Amino acid sequence: ILSETYGCMVYQEQVMQICRKMAGYSYGRADIVRRAMAKKKHDVMLQERENFVSGSIKNGVSEKIANEIFDEMVSFASYAFNKSHAAAYAVVSYQTAYLKRYYPLHYIMAVANNRISSAEEVKHYVNYIKDSGYEIYPPDINKSSKLFTIEGNGMRYGLNGIKNMGEAAMESILSERKQNGDYKDIRDLVSRNPEINKRMLESLIKGGALDCFNKTRATLIASYEKIVDSEMALRKNTSANQISLFDDLIEDVPVNYTELPEYDKSQKLQFEKEVLGMYVSGHPLDEYRGNTAGFNFSTEELFVESEDEDGNTTLSANGELEGKAVRFGGIIGSFEKRLSKSNTKFATGRIEDFTGVISFAMFGKSFEKNQALLQTESPVIVSGRLDMKVENEPKLVIDSIDLWVKDTPYAEKESKDNKAVKAESDSKKETEKLYVRVCDRGMLDVVINFLKRFPGDTSVVIKAELGGKPQALAFSGGVELSDDFVLRLKNIVGEANVKVISNAK
Question: Which of 222, 225, 224 is nearest to 263 (CA)?
Fold first, then answer.
C-alpha cells in the first residue's frame, strides 16, 4: 500500500486501504475515517481504535502492531490530504520554494499584495523583508503603485495600503500621474484629482506619501485644509461660469504653507502606524535592538499559518503557547485603569514589541506597584504568562514590569556618609531650569527614562529621597521644554512635584 511513497503515509486513500486490508473495513466505514481525518476530528479517530485493532487481530495482525499503525494514522491525520490535493500541493510547494530561494523579494511582495487588506498579515511579511536585509520604502505619491512594487533593493509601499484611501481616488491619482507626469505640490495633486477629500489627504501626509514635496509633515498637516478649501472654491466658481481675468495666472501663484518644524520621531512613527498599520520609516524601539538578553518571546510567535477545509491559508493563534511564561521588551501603546466588581483595581491595554502587538492585563500587587510605568510611553520589560484561550485574541497577564534602560544618564556621586550630590554645573548659563521631586528609586528610574526621550538644552535637577536622605541629582544633558512635555511629566510624578524656574544661575 505504501510502496509508491517509500513506506510513508502521504495520502488519505492509503489510510482507507490500510483500514480495508488490515481491519476488514467496508468502503463506507473506511470513508468515515477519511472524513474524520479531513476535518481534523481526532476524537472520532480515537473512537475507531478499538474497531481497527479488533479487526486487524482477526486478520492475523498482532495487537501491538495494529496499535502502532493506528497511532501512526492518528498522527498522520493532522496533515493528511487526498492524493490529487497532495500532488498539486507538492508542485506548488516546489515552485514557491524555488521562487523564495532565487527571487525572495518578488516572492514576498506577491504574498504581501495578496494579503494587503489585512494590516497584521502585511506587517508580518514586511518584517520578514526587513529581517532579510531589504529596504521597505514608504508610500510616495509620485512613485507608488496601487500595490507593493519592487524598487531598487527593496519594496515600495502601495497606495492601497493607506487607510481611508478610496478606490476611485487612488485610480484617479495613478491614471492622472501616468498621463500628465508627477505631482508638484498639494495644490497640484488636489486640482488634478477632484476625488481626493481632506480625510484622504491627511492619511497621505501621515503615511509619508507627500514627503516628496519637500515640506515637513507638520507643515503639510497645518496647511492642507486651506489649500483644499481654496481649490474647492475655485472649482465652484468655474462651474458657475464665474470667469476671472486672473484665472490664467492662478496656476503660477505659489502655495501658501504654514511652515512648521518637523514632528519628533515618535510622533511621525505614530502617524505612520495610524494610517499604514505599521511603522515604515523606523520603529520606536530601534535603539533597543541590541538589548534583548534574557528575552524568550516575540509577538511574531503568536500566530501560525493554518489551512481551512478549502485549502485557504490564514494566520491563527498558536495554541501551543497557552500558559507559557515569557519575558520580552516593548512599549505600552495604550492602557486603561479599571475597577472589578469587588472594587479591585487593575489595568488592561496593549503592548507592542519589534514585530507586533499583544493585549495585556495587570492585576493585584503588580498593578499597584507598577501603574506609573504604564503612562510614561517609555520602553519596558515585562514578564508574565500567555493566555491563548480566546481564539485569535492572545493576551498577556503581566506579573512584573520594569523599565527597559540601556544606560543611566545621571550621576550619583557616592560618599561614605552618603551626602547629597551637587547638582548644579557652572559650565552652563541657563535661562530656565527644571526641578523634579521623586520619593523613591522606582519613580526615579521612571522619570530618568522619560527625560531621555526629550533631549534639549534645559538643565534638570532631580530632588530625590533615597535611603531616607534627600539628594539632588543632575540629569546629564538636558531636555526640551514644551507644554506637552511638562503636562506628561506632571501626570507621572504629580503637579506639585514639577517646577520650571526662569533665570536660574
Answer: 222
